[in-house]
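@channel sequence for tomorrow's demo:
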Amino acid sequence: MNKKTINLSVREGLLLACLRSGMLSAEQYYCQTDGSVPEKLVREAIAMTEEEYSVYLEQATRPDFKFTELSIERLPEVSDLMKRVYTKYNDKDGTEESRKVFIEITSPEMFKERLEARDNGSTFYNMWVCIDPLTDKIVGVLSATKELLDCLFVDGDYHNRGIAQKLFKIMLEYFNPEEVEVFASLYAADFYRKLGFVGDDVEVINSGTKVIMMLYRNSNNAVLEYFMDFSL
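structure tokens (generated this afternoon):
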């Protein structure tokens, strides 16, 4: 079978089976999955024969991703993830200075003190990660204070899986902020708009990198539900 596949959670696999059988409409399916499975791949799965779909589902189904607070001992893994994603996607307009600054501000030492404060009871700052349960690999990370989304990175092999969306939702539930600010890279700006951030598209230089200052207003301090196919 020469079709592109995507790893599915057990729940996503069951919902897709319900869609194929007619038990769910397309609208009901996308509401239930929050757009975590790209529409093109859903259409391909629907068009498969039962034999093709059986093979597809066997290859694709995986345990659900694990979302949790980052433990200090795994900081080096997170630092490596940030550098990989930054180099591949965010460094198009970078300079030697901006790359040097990024390496410095994403070193494990820069996060360790704040996480130690968190572990001692401080609620000012936190970091969350997404872990692939099949490999125990950290594939996504979000770092934030109540009013500033400090960084959000997802491994390129895990884009279009709703990981960044889920991490942001966890952050909102934890802090319940009125507003959240982010210095969005030019690459990520459209994604943040889909999350509800707004900005005037004026580019500024932050630590040697071109960014856009954007703001998210948490309406009534309630967590919003998103039903989009996000790019991260």
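heads up for whoever presents: Residues 1-5, 222-231 have pLDDT under 50 and may be disordered.
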